[in-house]
Amino acid sequence: MKSNPKHESGTVTIQMIAKLANVSHTTVSRALNGSDSVKPATKKKIVDLANELGYVPNYSARRLVTNRSDTIGIFFSDLETGTSASFLTEVIEQAQRMLPKQYSLSINSIRTAWESGKVSVSNFDGVIVISQSREDQQFIDQIKQQGIPTVILNRKVEGGTLDNYAFNDFLGEQMATEYVIRMGHRKFALIKGVNSFESSYQRTMGFQKALANHQIEIDPAMIKEGDYFPESGNRLMRQILSSGQVPTCVICENDDMAIGALNACSDLGYRVPEDISLIGFDDMSYSKYLTPSLTTVRKLTAVLVKKGIERLTQLIQGETFATPVQEVINPEVIVRASVKRLARGESVN
Asked: 173 Cβ partners below 8 Å, 6+ apart?
């Protein structure tokens, strides 16, 4: 009976598999790494042998040989403030689903990474920056100088020197506001996101553009600054409902704040949409399951991450392109039950 090398030496090596398969150790290495340079029949024979013998790859040695870490860094502007748990989770889940299997993810904030100085070629094979603020530019420039394959997502970055996929937040909020204006609303309140975040700035500008198009004015006291988390939406909605000039529609610059606002309405005895209409932004997975279901702006996060991962993988594999990609993805308004059509002159009691 053929002896099992694992039993004799305690460790199965590439050299052992090469001897049994009657091929070179280089061929074994390429086959186990999925290289197309190995004939399918040979590759199957090698993989079957490796599985039978219980071969466990030495990733540390592999990294020394290939000069790769098999780690992708994903950096958000700030994980403490402004990055909602819903958006964070969706980005990570999509990235894990779309990355090649050998890669693992390292999640961090730009602020933390900048302070620690740990962003280097030896740490990451590639980097995805979920940029939410113009203040990220120094960090982005540092990565670029090191030559790390990098893709910038979420915010449109000026300069066009790195691959960049962004959302049209301005258009999204403008379309949402135009929709509620067509539904008869003229008396608004706005719960903004973080002032320093580009998404909040663009959404606020889109909202104000739609009002200007229809010669609608808003009391500055009805514009509140939140932080993209539900608690701020709840707190600011309570201020709005207690102001003595309750609007017919409140626009929240993300769905998480809209959840907080919805709960505040319920606590204070206001029905949505019968007494007050509510609209969000992002179309998070839970939005359609709220009561009432939330009218919102669908930000195609899955599409954004997919495009970014595909491009980053190509860059890591050494592909070159004449010019970096600069693509802006347009959102769409998702109409559900949280906005009421008003008759002319109708307002909250």
From this structure: 202, 203, 204, 205, 206, 207, 210, 251, 253, 281, 297
Radius of gyration of the chain (CA): 26
Cβ neighbours for 172, distance < 8 A, ≥ 6 positions apart: 203, 206, 281, 297, 299, 330, 331, 333
Pull the structure tokens for residue 194.
């973080």
Do the beta carbons of residue 131 and residue 293 sit within 8 Å?
A: no
What percent of the chain has pLDDT above 70?
89
5-57 topology per CATH: 434 Repressor (Amino-terminal Domain) (1.10.260)
**Which CATH number does 71-168+301-330 carry?**
3.40.50.2300
Amino acid at 91: V
Q: What is the pLDDT of residues 96-140, one digit of tens each?
A: 999 888 888 989 888 787 777 666 656 888 999 999 998 899 889
Backbone angles phi, psi at 207, to 5 degrees: -60, -50
**149 preceded by a cis bond (ω within 30 of 0):** no
Check if the beta carbon of residue 233 is closer than 8 Å to that of residue 261: yes
